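Support case: pyridoxal-5'-phosphate complex. Customer-provided input:
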Amino acid sequence: MRGKWMYFHGTSKINDKGHLEIGGCDTTDLAREYGTPLYVVDEALVRQRAREYVEAFRASGLKFQVAYASKAFSVLAMCVIAEQEGLSLDVVSDGELYTALQAGFPAGRIHFHGNNKTPEEINMALDAEIGCFVVDNFTELRLLNALAGDKGKKVNILLRITPGVEAHTHDYISTGQEDSKFGFDLQGGAAFQAVEEATGLKHLHLLGVHSHIGSQIFEVEGFRMAADKVCGFALDVRAKLNYTFQVINLGGGFGIRYTNDDTPLQVAEYIKAITDSVRTNFTKADYPLPEIWVEPGRSIVGDAGTTLYTVGTSKDIPGVRKYVSVDGGMTDNPRPALYQSQYEAVLANRAGEPAAETVSIAGKCCESGDMLIWDLELPQAKSGDLLAVFCTGAYNYAMASNYNRIRRPAVVFVRDGAADVAVKRETLSDIIAGDVIPERLRKSALTNG
Ligand SMILES: *Cc1c(COP(=O)(O)O)cnc(C)c1O
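Agent response - structure generated as follows:
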């Protein structure tokens, strides 16, 4: 049997009843009270991760901002925690911006990302007076300058550049290579041209540059290479345009451990590599040390999340495979279907029992691809058992859908034995809340009837 203990993150443990406990709450109690599927967030672990970033930067002595990439998990309660922990916040849409503002997140610490911000989104962000726009392309550069001008404002920007560094990760989630929909290409000269143009635009104040080289990155080499390229670029810009960057943003992508195959570094190791490399590069060039920003998403919330499911049916195909189906699936966690992402799980109500068989966990959607975990070792699972899938805090609720008109689960935050709802489970009436039967269909329904 593989030791499952190593997938227990934060406050997760097995209690004296043999049940999985998170944040001092017995998960079988949580399932009974809130129903399943249920997202459980270990609040202490979220806060611990946030603090690891802040403390690693404090130790470096550099000026910094740690911006939580809210796309990983954007709900009001999470924005409040990010604010309380002194983080900044990245948003990529009006919806994420609205969530942050409604949570009372200080606008000055909000950064707006995205490769196709609409004029409406830009205006909303201008009115809210957010701290910084991360400009992705020339169209946006000119549009933002014009819209800021209409409002008589001058706004802070970073330019997103693609440094040509590709982090080792799954193809679909790597963005640092030149052939990317994101950012100004460094090698081809677009990045330089963008700086030249931005510094001449009256309503924009160029703080510096941004680079994000990928996701689920397990080494520091990619960040070092990106820091070198960005620094080289800063020197080039200073030499040719006599312009100095105040801010260097090295993005997110810090890895977490979903399974035993994943080997992330400690947060402090990533940050030390980044700050050391920036300090060395810029000091050598006699360049004023810029402020360093990073944007962790997954690594703030990923391992703090656990999804609880109730086991339903099973199907044993002798000599082939045994399927065990749960009451959720790709609607609450599309990542296995999208990226072949892997997860670990235990039976939460029998967490101390040894594995007895290898099964594959299927979701309940009408898609053969709706599988959550292939080849998972478990005690013999029975209908009514509780399955706990680990590391679902990032890009799960955020990517959840209503496919098959399945209701999105509730999210509860647990801490010190208390459980609090952060998102209510959708109701059946929520499912049709936006539906409208056009009048003419009602009429024809009447005449036909
Ligand atoms: C997605 C994203 C992040 C966060 O990535 P994680 O892998 O969740 O840390 C940070 N910055 C940008 C620009 C992103 O697109």
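The longest helix spans residues 221-241.

Case will auto-close in a few days if no follow-up is received.
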